[in-house]
Amino acid sequence: MIRAYTIASGKGGTGKTTVTVNLGTALAQLGKETYILDADVGMANIGILLGLENVPVTLHEVLAGKAKVDEAIYDGPAGLKVVPSGISLQGFQDANPDRLREVMHDLVDRCDYLLIDAPAGISRDGVVPLAIADEVILVVNPELSSIVDALKTKILTELVGGHVQYAIINRAGKDNLDFVEKKIEKSLGVKSLGSVPEDNHVRESAAYKTPVVIKYPTSGSSRAIKRIAAEISGCEYHDDTASAREGFIDRLAKAIFRGKR
Ligand SMILES: Nc1ncnc2c1ncn2[C@@H]1O[C@H](COP(=O)(O)OP(=O)(O)OP(=O)(O)O)[C@@H](O)[C@H]1O
């Protein structure tokens, strides 16, 4: 079973951190023991998105050999476990990315899924996460430049001995979804796990330091991410919107027919 996924892209800003945090939370909501690890040691964001930016020990100290990984694990939403990176430049300078493999092995033994948020680009700290995970998931926006960058990342991953299994199309528009997905699958030569729509709820939930799958569970982005979590884990997807609608219809039917029984 595949357990350690690196979430990568070509350029920054495609939504890797958003996907890591929300897919991790969605897997945890499905009852899977899930850890997320912020391997973007230079531009760490997971801690900021989850309100863990001021914690005393982070992946920085672990990669610098100053702390054990157990000291850098924090509780996130829905039972998710989080290993954030620090935001100081000194911490980044002291961190040795070569220690990441050890950290990954240590974590992967205790969970069902480990999601590693990789840095963008092809620096040393960017390449290590591509090589060490069981599989890489590319987060790609439906734009030519993003697809080309994702393709470069796929080639780089293979060069360093890693493997790209899936793509997730993030910030998708409303039109021609299937066509765009097929085109991207063909260009990258990998299966798409699905499209996450452009959705203002993503930014709004970030302002509350809460994953969108928790803050706005019936939003388009949440439903897409939960569907992807179900696909990865082999669980059945349960559409909250459908059940909310059913609930409403049930209540309406009861209100209408109550007097007629
Ligand atoms: N589906 C979406 N709809 C709307 N906004 C989104 C969506 N996904 C991500 N965003 C927004 O896009 C911005 C970049 O997202 P994110 O930080 O997850 O990207 P990243 O690839 O991790 O970036 P970096 O490489 O700089 O770390 C954030 O402001 C985020 O809220």
From TrEMBL:
Organism field: Methanofollis liminatans DSM 4140
UniProt keyword annotation of Transit peptide present: no
Cellular component per GO, a single term: cytoplasmic side of plasma membrane
Upper taxonomic lineage: Archaea, Methanobacteriati, Methanobacteriota, Stenosarchaea group, Methanomicrobia
Protein name: Cell division ATPase MinD
Domain CobQ/CobB/MinD/ParA nucleotide binding intervals: 6-212
GO BP term, example: negative regulation of cell division
Binding locations of ATP: K11, G12, G13, T14, G15, K16, T17, T18
A Pfam family it matches: CbiA
Swiss-Prot/TrEMBL keywords: ATP-binding, Cell cycle, Cell division, Nucleotide-binding
Entry-linked NCBIfam families: minD_arch
PANTHER family per UniProt: ATPASE INVOLVED IN CHROMOSOME PARTITIONING, PARA_MIND FAMILY (PTHR43384:SF10), SEPTUM SITE-DETERMINING PROTEIN MIND HOMOLOG, CHLOROPLASTIC-RELATED (PTHR43384)
Molecular function GO terms recorded: ATP binding; ATP hydrolysis activity
Key word Transferase present: no
